[in-house]
Amino acid sequence: MSLIPFRKEGQISLSDLQQEMNNLFDRFWHGGLSTPPFDGQGWAPAVDVIEEPERFILRAEVPGLEAADISLTCSEGSLEIKGHKSCDYAEETRQGLLRRERRFGSFSRSIPLPGGADSSAITASCRNGVLEITMPKREDSRAKVIKIDVKE
Questions:
Q1: Could you count the other beta carbons within 10 Å of the beta carbon of residue 106?
Q2: pTM of this structure
Q3: What integer pLDDT is reported at residue 58 of this predicted model?
Q4: Which residues are CB-neighbours of 42 under 8 A, at least 6 positions away?
C-alpha cells in the first residue's frame, strides 16, 4: 500500500484499486476461471514473486506435478514455466464423474524477470506441489548502505 499523506486508516487509494483490478484480471486469465476460451489452456499455475534484499523468489502452485513434469526456460528477460498434468482417471471412472473441478492438461506461463535479477544464476526446486525459483540479484542492483561523513 502506498503512503498518502492525510489518508485515514482503512481508506483505499486509487493505486490500491488499480492493484486489485490487476490481480483480478491476472486471476481471470491464468487462475482457472474458464481460461480455455481465452488463452487456449485448461489451467495455469498461480504465482507469487517476492523480493528480498539479495534475491527474488518466485513460487508457483503446481499440485500433483513432479519436477520432471515441469520445464523452465529463461530468455529475453522472461522466465517460461511449462508443464503437463495428466488426468489420473481411468476411462470407466471418467464416465461416472459427477463433478469435475480439478484441471488437467498442458500449461505455459511466461513471467517477466524482475529488474536486477541475475538470469545466469537462477535455481529451482519443487516440493509438496510448490515450485520455487530463486533469482539472485545482480551485485550492481542491490541496495548499498552509504556511510555519511560528519564534517565539523
A1: 14
A2: 0.66
A3: 97
A4: 35, 36, 103, 104, 105, 106, 107
